[in-house]
Amino acid sequence: MSAPLAPDATIVVVGASLAGLRAAEEIRHEHHEGAVIIVGDEPHAPYDRPPLSKQLLSGKWDVERIHHHAPDALDLLDLEFRLGRTATGLDMGNRTLALSDGSTLAFDGLVIATGAATRKLPGTEGMPGVWTLRTLDDALAIKAGLEAAGPGPRLVVIGAGFIGAEVAATGHGLGAAVTVLEAHHTPLSRVLGDEIGQVCADLHAANGVALRCSVTIDHLESDPGGPDPVTVVLDTGERIAADVVVVGIGVEPCTGWLEGSGLTVDNGVVCDGALVAGEGVVAAGDVARWLRPTTGALTRVEHWTNAAEGGAHAARNLLAGSLAAVPFDPVPFFWSDQYAAKIQMIGLPGPDDEVVVVSGSGHEGKMVALYRSGDRLSAVFTISQPRQLMLYRPLLAAGASFDEALAQSGS
Questions:
Q1: Is 378 left (phi over 0), alpha (psi -120 to 50) or beta?
Q2: Residue 279 is assigned to a structural domain of this protein
Q3: What are phi and psi of 4, to 5 degrees?
Q4: Average pLDDT of span 337-363
């Protein structure tokens, strides 16, 4: 058990994205006077990731607009940045962090917010014309590749998850001929279930994007100077030509640097219900797998709001010490902008949850669907119905019954 941190304690935040920045902000908002050092593997000041697949890729926003703070506002927080370097090791006994430039940092308190890295297709690392989308540099490279291909570029997206769907929608809006290849029989079925997954599939079809499910990629071929810069070869032998390929097959938490640290790592940094991972160590964002109080299950959530809320919450608990730490039990929320639709969900549905559509439909472009787990409301999914979605948030926070949710809907 750890005591509150001293007012002049040195705090190191590993990860310069949303969760890490929110943690650092909260540390200052709580009037902590000691040094706050943020380590980030990218050379860029902290920026927002959701616009990468939408506003930035489409060209509607420039790079400056996606940064969380203007430089002068960031200066007011009195943070020390170590950008363009990664954490390579953690010594809990000596309370030191090893960095990729050979330096070490001593800390009194540590926030782990290293996020997650995109999964790569075997054999495609460094292949021209083939990208994953996680960073600002990724987005700019994909944008440049589409522009260089000229009018009507051929864009193949591998993976019909949220990132893949957003890239497909943005590419379609730029005039690309888009093909989406998905290994499962329905997009997002593992997250949303088959019924709502099919609703998302119908969005692609309604907008003229070719979605092909239950396909297996054998390998990719690259010919940068030829008429087909990239070719996707399926296990059937079919060949699909592309100018740009974007791979969106999920992410893995960045925890390799914690090997031998003594912290528990298992599909993320394992934390208690208050995001405490060890003595004077907390974790937040995509990398944190915490004991969610509502369900009693270890949970890892890859949504923007979880990173924002978790970063601030972890920081407060780090300052207070584990004896005074408060459990972290938010109502999960995410959104995805695809074509003209705003997809939103609150809660975390289970794979066996029942789905009840209480208004609208995917074809109408407006829809509200409730998820039922036993006799409880577990999640709410909507298309372009933000006000209706928020009406259910208090019910989820209170652990309401499904009958109460149906009464809310008027069904």
A1: alpha
A2: yes
A3: -60, 145
A4: 93
pLDDT at 1: 63
301 alpha carbon, distance to own chain's centre: 8
- Residue 8: phi and psi, rounded to 5, are -105, 15
Separation between Cα atoms, residue 272 and residue 262, nearest integer Å: 15
Task: Please spell the DSSP secondary structure of 31-70, one letter per residue.
Answer: T--S-EEEEESSSSPPB-SGGGGTHHHHTSS-GGGGBSS-
Domain CATH number, residue 368? 3.30.390.30
Q: What is the pLDDT of residues 116-125, one digit of tens each?
A: 999 999 999 9
Contact 90, 258 (CB under 8 A): yes
Asked whether the beta carbons of 383 and 343 are under 8 A apart, the reply is: yes
The one-letter code for the residue type at 189 is S
In this structure, of 43-57, 67-81, 279-293, 325-339, the range with the lowest mean pLDDT score is 67-81
Please give the share of the chain, as a percent, with pLDDT higher than 70: 100
Going from the C-alpha of 217 to that of each of 151, 164, 188, 343, the distances in angstroms are 27, 16, 18, 28
**Contact call for residues 118 and 206 (beta carbons, < 8 A):** no
The residue segments making up the domain with residue 105 are 11-117+252-324
Strand order in the sheet with 376-383: 333-338, 341-347, 376-383, 366-373, 354-361
* pLDDT tens digits, one per residue of 150-167: 999 999 999 999 999 999
Alpha-carbon distance of 205 to 201, in angstroms, equals 7
> 202 and 53 in one domain?
no
At residue 69, the pLDDT reads 85
- pLDDT, greater one: 378 or 1: 378
User: Residue 253: phi, psi to the nearest 5?
Assistant: -60, 140
Residue 257 within any structural domain of the chain = yes
Domain boundary among 300, 324, 348: 324
- Model confidence over 30-71: pLDDT tens digits? 999 999 999 999 999 999 999 999 999 999 999 999 998 887
The single-letter DSSP state of residue 321 is -
Indicate the Cα dihedral angle 354, 182, 134, 253, nearest 10°.
60
Closest CA to 15 of 33, 35, 42, 34: 42
Q: Which two tokens stand for residue 67?
A: 């940064």
Q: Taking all residues of the chain, what is their mean pLDDT, rounded to a whole number?
A: 95
Q: Token pair for residue 347? A: 């809660």
CA-derived radius of gyration, the chain: 22
By CB atoms closer than 10 A (0-12, 13-18, 19+), residue 244 is buried
- CA 131 to chain centroid: 17
